[in-house]
Write a structure and sequence with these properties.
Elements lengths: L1 E2 L2 E2 L3 H20 L5 E7 L6 H10 L11 H9 L5 H14 L5 H14 L3 E8 L11 H18 L8 E9 L4 H13 L4 E7 L9 H13 L3 E2 L2 E2 L15 E4 L2 H5 L4 H6 L3 E4 L1 H6 L9 H11 L2 E4 L4 H4 L3 H10 L5 H13 L10 H13 L1
Parallel strand pairs: 3-4, 4-5, 5-6, 6-7, 8-9, 9-10, 10-11
Antiparallel strand pairs: 1-2
Helix pairs in contact: 1-16, 5-6, 6-7, 7-8
């Protein structure tokens, strides 16, 4: 009696083999469908334009009056910008509507899409909690409300029907006062079950005049055993003094492009670059995707890990598998390099507690069945 690649003369043994195979198939279908890890995704920029448009319609928002129809809105929301500053202005649209009441609506749809359309097994959502609080409150009360925001994001991102391992990265912001940024670090320390790290965002061109302040905050986070990443070396910001405080580097593409002498120490610290290909076209940082070939080649040569990410999946009109496909079809990387980046994403994930990525577990199950 033949069954695939197996040959069995014992009917009882064949029956057990078939039952085992069917059980493994069920596990693969129900549990191990998701395969990828996303380390750099902003809560605000992840909202798909159609979902945002429907929310604005239902809530009768004044924002919708700026556009005559949905195609006009989608074009405005997803078209490339000339600079990073212009690109970041789009975040304010979503931040203004992602209130405590609205966050479950947006996060449910975000997690559903991430699981069904992107095969994500792991997702780190980053955002600035202060910018989701009630702007009519004074600063101290808004700081208090940040705890509620983080709790809502935590509850809303844990869905039985879309089983993604998820955690939050709280972003300090280059345009927020010191007191707010320090409170963001404190909040991360108070909620390790929901928050895995801190970040600094808001445009790396603005860090310089407050560098001592940001170094102090990263030192403070380290004293509390909080992991850290930072939007750094994305465009013009050249701040090597921040690098020693980071576990990962948000973007970091200007290191191999303009400051390759730094790659050796990045490799020694075992830091990973969070590279978001489509973003650099949307912000005018790069003119074509093939310019990233130098980034990948130099990092691989220097032993620096890269995790491929989407950054703002909604604003960029892209999903993680599309980023993979673009890099492959444009000959930026090959399949072996893609595999290395996918492995690196799980290896550097702040809240992934398993020794292997899901694809390795699936491979082990299949080998166990064959034996």
């Amino acid at each position: 009696m033949k069954f695939g690649f197996w040959y069995c003369k014992d009917p009882d043994k064949f029956k057990r083999t078939r039952q085992n195979r069917e059980q493994i198939i069920r596990i693969i279908e129900e549990v191990l469908v998701a395969l990828y890890a996303e380390l750099h995704r902003h809560l605000g920029g992840s909202v798909v334009p159609r979902i945002l448009w429907r929310y604005l319609e239902r809530s009768e928002s004044d924002l919708i009056e700026r556009f005559s129809n949905y195609p006009e809105f989608e074009d405005f929301y997803t078209r490339p910008r000339n600079t990073l500053d212009e690109y970041l202005e789009l975040h304010t649209i979503v931040e203004g509507v992602q209130t405590a009441e609205a966050l479950p609506y947006f996060i449910y749809r975000l997690m559903r899409g991430a699981y069904i359309f992107e095969n994500l097994a792991y997702l780190e959502l980053r955002y600035t909690p202060y910018l989701r609080t009630n702007p009519n409150l004074d600063q101290s009360r808004r700081i208090e409300q940040m705890t509620e925001i983080a709790q809502i994001v935590g509850r809303s991102s844990r869905l039985k029907e879309y089983p993604i391992v998820s955690s939050q990265i709280l972003c300090m912001h280059s345009k927020l006062p010191y007191e707010v940024n320090r409170a963001i670090v404190d909040l991360a320390a108070q909620m390790p079950e929901n928050i895995c790290a801190i970040d600094l965002a808001g445009g790396d061109a603005y860090y310089g005049e407050r560098m001592e302040e940001f170094i102090e905050l990263f030192e403070y986070a380290r004293s509390l055993n909080i992991k850290a990443t930072c939007h750094l070396y994305e465009t013009e910001g050249h701040y090597p003094e921040l690098l020693p405080f980071l576990n990962r580097i948000g973007h970091g593409i200007q290191i191999p492009l303009r400051y390759p002498h730094l790659l050796k120490e990045v490799a020694q610290r075992k830091q990973c670059l969070e590279v978001c290909p489509t973003t650099y076209l949307k912000t005018g940082t790069l003119q074509e995707i093939r310019q990233l070939k130098q980034v990948f080649d130099q990092c691989f040569d220097a032993g620096v890990d890269i995790a491929i990410c989407t950054d703002n999946a909604g604003l960029n009109d892209v999903r993680l598998p599309f980023e993979y496909e673009t890099l492959l079809t444009q000959d930026v990387i090959g399949f072996e390099e893609l595999q290395a980046c996918q492995d690196a994403a799980f290896r550097h994930a702040f809240a992934w507690q398993y020794a292997q990525r899901p694809a390795s577990l699936l491979d082990r199950l299949l080998k166990s069945e064959a034996s």
